[in-house]
Design goal:
By secondary structure, the protein is of the alpha+beta class. 17% of the residues lie in helices and 28% in strands. The protein has 5 helices and 14 strands.
Amino acid sequence: MCLIAWRTDHRSAWPLVLAANRDEYHARESLSVHQWALDELDPAVALRGRRVVAGKDLRAGGTWLGLAVVDAGIIRIAALTNVRDGRLPLPGPDAPSRGRLVIDTLSDPGSATDALARLARAGAAGAAGAAGAGGAAGGIGAMAGFNLVAIEIDVRRGKGSIIETAYLTHAGPVSGSTIAPAPRAIPEGVHALSNANLDEPWPKTRLLARAIQRAGERLDRDGGPDTMSQFDTSSQLDPSNRPDPTSRPDPTSRPDPSSRLDTGNRPDPRAWPDPGGWLDDTGSLEAAETELFAQLAERRPACDADLPDTGVSLERERWLSAPFIIGGDYGTRCSTVIAVGADGRYRIHERRFDAAGEVIGSTTEMGQTAAIPIRR
């Protein structure tokens, strides 16, 4: 995962809206988003039997973005981005996969903050297997750089959800301790993350953060006046340089709601899903998703004056500056939008792309926290 933005607001009927792009080598085999059990990955993983909704990396077994129902009424989402710094050495060929960090975070029996704190402590101490046999915690120091975000939403009170967001970063396999000593608590609001620090104002993080803000405001407005919220990203991301919406790609394919977590209640794939009335206006979510997918599909590079300096060539900085990357053997593999409602329902919509940037598939997974209650 190389670009993520999200909005959290405990007052909203939509306490979480998230959008992300995964950039990866096209030859690296993976499965699209689906429901699977964590013990499919490792029989000894913590909380055997807990299920996640996520894609799966078939080479190393981890994932880049996933959602788990950790208890009735509690949803946890974990996401990972790489850290790009061409001045640092690359990890060794036997370095553990960073995708295991997402699995460890989703399977941890504690809170979202507890999960990241456990990873940080185990990694800093070199305590192999501290997150369970085969877990990634003990090998963090040998990993390439990463940013790890965990968002936990407790919707048992309905509107007025309790939201906890934690962030952990690791510069890469360099001498000395490069692992943050503890996860950082992230306040509610709009945040964006690419291949640098959280809320680093790169051009593509600014663009996606603005799109997330607009999508959240649209959902709040359409959900009724009592769910209106105000979001101020001026202290995080520069609100100038709004792109021309008429020149953006216009994704026209409608999602294929191929499955729900509640497999006994599959929707008609020919119609836009209406999941039991959890949306007052399904069109508002569709419109918000369309806007987010359009921004995720933006392929124009940033101006040279706005490019970051990450220790790679100017040509490569230009190429990687677009939200959506096309480049032969490497590029954007999928775009994902996640919405979590205050009633405990959630939806994950993923679009997949080939090396030319053409849509090759679309999957929608929907469910409710009560569908697979897992008790701590």
